[in-house]
Design brief:
Blueprint lengths: L6 H5 L3 E7 L6 H11 L9 H12 L4 H5 L2 H6 L4 H17 L2 E8 L11 H21 L5 E9 L5 H10 L5 E7 L11 H9 L5 E4 L5 H10 L4 E4 L7 E3 L5 E3 L1 H8 L4 E3 L1 H6 L11 H6 L4 E3 L11 H12 L3 H14 L4 H20 L1
Parallel strand pairs: 1-2, 2-3, 3-4, 5-6, 6-9, 9-10
Antiparallel strand pairs: 7-8
Helix pairs in contact: 6-7, 8-9, 15-16
Length: 362
């Protein structure tokens, strides 16, 4: 019999992460220290454990809108170059500790200018933090490559400006563009100008779609906006019917998503917390994986969801009985779907991920 996969074993595996929000992954202690350092007085707790509990319980709301409310506090302490650098640096440390070898970490620069920073200064501080974090990880023998996605808020009107920001920093660590925020009432098509700008500059982008809102948001993200990936996309299951004989029938939306190999940035724990699905056991991840959709495993918000990549993988293992070969497939799916240049993707797949999994699989 094969050895059951435990959290400690899974932590040894190399991982690739495509959907992780910088402002959703702070350490509770860092939030407290930055609030004290920079005079942020609105935190709901002054103790590390109490603050961690607040973020965790607030996120378990069953609503995307309520899930997003605690971000006011993390964003509130990320308004200076020093704070942004520290948060970015610590994100790399935490991911490297979990054996993440590649990560695309996203954030919305427009949320970090309340104290007078320019959009460019915000991005520079974050990219410097990522670079310094990579160097620190390398000095301890850990391989990790971190790239940035700049995000526009879908309820605002700055998406073209943020897309231009992505292009200005495309050779300095920004590999793509995204829109995020409450989905209902703010369809992707409101931001066509930004997506057209990205396409005209041969640049990549993902779109939050099919999380709190259903198939129409996925349709718009793909048919109108031309998204390279879908952030979440979990509601594509609404276009799949499984008969009594166990055979699945794909509607036209699901079929083209699979046929075109559009990657799904699935975030199991977050999807439960926002009410997109009822439980990990009922998550369509396994159905989509068995139907050979391009599924990837992601954290979304490590602080809010109280999670890591290893924990997300463990929850899927416990729910669906996955083994090493499954986790390797999901990891390679993510690397293939990354916005990193092709040769750099191959270097990580062939030079890091496959050799390490070969040892784990035995």
């Amino acid at each position: 019999m094969s050895t059951p996969l435990t959290l400690d074993l899974i932590k040894q595996a190399p991982k690739a992460l495509l959907h992780d929000h910088l402002d959703g992954g702070l350490r509770p202690a860092t939030v407290l220290e930055l609030a004290d350092q920079f005079g942020y007085d609105d935190l709901p707790a002054s103790d590390v454990d109490d603050l961690a509990t607040f973020f965790r319980t607030a996120a378990h709301s069953g609503s995307l809108v309520r899930y997003l409310e605690p971000f006011a506090h993390t964003v509130g302490v990320m308004q200076t170059p020093e704070a942004l650098h520290r948060v970015a640096y610590e994100a790399v440390e935490d991911l490297a500790e979990d054996n993440v070898v590649y990560a695309e970490v996203r954030f919305a620069p427009e949320l970090h200018i309340d104290h007078g920073l320019s959009l460019d200064a915000v991005v520079e501080a974050v990219l410097d933090g990522f670079a310094d974090g990579e160097k620190a990880a390398a000095s301890t023998g850990r391989t990790i490559v971190v790239r940035c996605l700049v995000t526009a808020m879908r309820h605002a009107a700055r998406s073209r400006e943020i897309a231009e920001l992505a292009i200005r920093f495309r050779d300095r660590g920004v590999v793509g563009f995204d829109i995020a925020g409450a989905e209902a009432g703010y369809p992707p098509s409101r931001h066509l100008d930004a997506f057209e700008y990205m396409r005209s500059n041969n640049a990549r982008f993902t779109i939050h779609a099919g999380e709190a809102f259903g198939l129409p948001s996925i349709h718009e993200a793909l048919a109108f906006c031309g998204a390279d990936r879908l952030g979440h996309g979990v509601r594509i299951v609404d276009d799949i019917t499984v008969g009594a004989d166990g055979k699945a029938h794909l509607g036209s939306q699901a079929a083209i998503l699979r046929d075109k190999r559009i990657p799904l940035e699935l975030c199991p724990s977050s999807n439960v917390q926002t009410g997109a699905v009822n439980s990990i056991a009922e998550h369509p991840f396994d159905l989509l994986a068995r139907l050979r959709f391009r599924v990837t495993v992601n954290t979304d918000n490590r602080l809010m969801s109280d999670t890591t990549m290893s924990q997300e993988m463990l929850r899927l293992v416990e729910a669906f009985g996955y083994g090493w070969s499954d986790l390797e497939r999901f990891t390679i799916n993510a690397m293939k779907s990354s916005f990193l240049p092709f040769d750099e993707r191959l270097a990580l797949i062939d030079g890091v991920i496959k050799p390490r999994y070969a040892v784990l699989i035995g």
